[in-house]
Amino acid sequence: NMGGDVNTLNIFTLGLGPWLTSMIILMLISYRNMDKYMKQTSLEKHYKERILTLILSVIQSYFVIHEYVSKQRVHQDNIYLTILILVTGTMLLVWLADKNSRYGIAGPMPIVMVSIIKSMMHQKMEYIDASHIVIALLIILVIITLFILLFIELVEVRIPYIDLMNVSATNMKSYLSWKVNPAGSITLMMSISAF
């Protein structure tokens, strides 16, 4: 769930939206002072990202509760508990995306893709009277799209170069590796978060 699914309020209603927004905000802030950003450790970047995600998810969950839940159904005492539940769901999804980035395939993209497919099925597909062939073709198209995303994420161009300062006896080939998609999955995440 990317967020915005307020038809059925559950633990994953906010989805990965606050995390994607915090990554975009921190990336835009880092462009102002790149030297300072490059000196930060990955742990510092991780904590800043999580703290901003936590703040944004609290704000967004407060807005979702007050905008989409009727006042008669939720008592004032239960609002804080509901905010805690929504924030917990967001942080759980962020944790899963982080674990998939470290140990899984294609970073956080599979979680984002599943949420996109779920929202498409929920919003558009319930009004379409499609045959089994059309549904099978859609599933095949989604699988092909996942393989293309995986290919783009893992492919790199290796540019050979000669290291003049290397005086070792081994004749190892040196190269510069350049990813085909150097931005990674942030481009898709940014477009999904913005629109």
UniProtKB/TrEMBL annotation:
<feature type="transmembrane region" description="Helical">
    <location>
        <begin position="103"/>
        <end position="121"/>
    </location>
</feature>
<keyword id="KW-0813">Transport</keyword>
<feature type="transmembrane region" description="Helical">
    <location>
        <begin position="51"/>
        <end position="66"/>
    </location>
</feature>
<dbReference type="Pfam" id="PF00344">
    <property type="entry name" value="SecY"/>
</dbReference>
<keyword id="KW-1003">Cell membrane</keyword>
<keyword id="KW-0812">Transmembrane</keyword>
<dbReference type="GO" id="GO:0016020">
    <property type="term" value="C:membrane"/>
</dbReference>
<protein>
    <submittedName>
        <fullName>Accessory Sec system protein translocase subunit SecY2</fullName>
    </submittedName>
</protein>
<dbReference type="InterPro" id="IPR014269">
    <property type="entry name" value="SecY2"/>
</dbReference>
<dbReference type="InterPro" id="IPR002208">
    <property type="entry name" value="SecY/SEC61-alpha"/>
</dbReference>
<dbReference type="InterPro" id="IPR023201">
    <property type="entry name" value="SecY_dom_sf"/>
</dbReference>
<feature type="transmembrane region" description="Helical">
    <location>
        <begin position="12"/>
        <end position="31"/>
    </location>
</feature>
<keyword id="KW-1133">Transmembrane helix</keyword>
<feature type="transmembrane region" description="Helical">
    <location>
        <begin position="133"/>
        <end position="155"/>
    </location>
</feature>
<feature type="transmembrane region" description="Helical">
    <location>
        <begin position="78"/>
        <end position="96"/>
    </location>
</feature>
<dbReference type="GO" id="GO:0015031">
    <property type="term" value="P:protein transport"/>
</dbReference>
<keyword id="KW-0472">Membrane</keyword>
